[in-house]
Amino acid sequence: MVCVYRGTYMGVAADFVIKTNAITALSFSGSSYPISATLEGKATYQINRASDGYQLFSEGGLKFTAKVTDSGKSSGIRLDKFALTLYKNGGLYKSVPDSLLQGGNVVVHIK
Asked: Domain extents for the chain?
């Protein structure tokens, strides 16, 4: 999973990239839509200059928890939700609050 959000870093336009590199747990809640899934694992956090992709900062060895909610609609734009929290040494490191998708679609399959 890759999460990218945009902002500024030390006054420079930047892309903030969270890349997961291992999944250690997966759970589901709900039996009909909306349905949610929670993933846990390890991740790397990078900040890249937006103009050319040059890496300005990187931190590895982080733990993450991601929660997604599937509305059940064919397009998840402004309907599906996503939240992501990073932890370092057991403490809160970074957080992307529960947000409606601005593009894409979350799909959680119900058996």
From this structure: 2-100
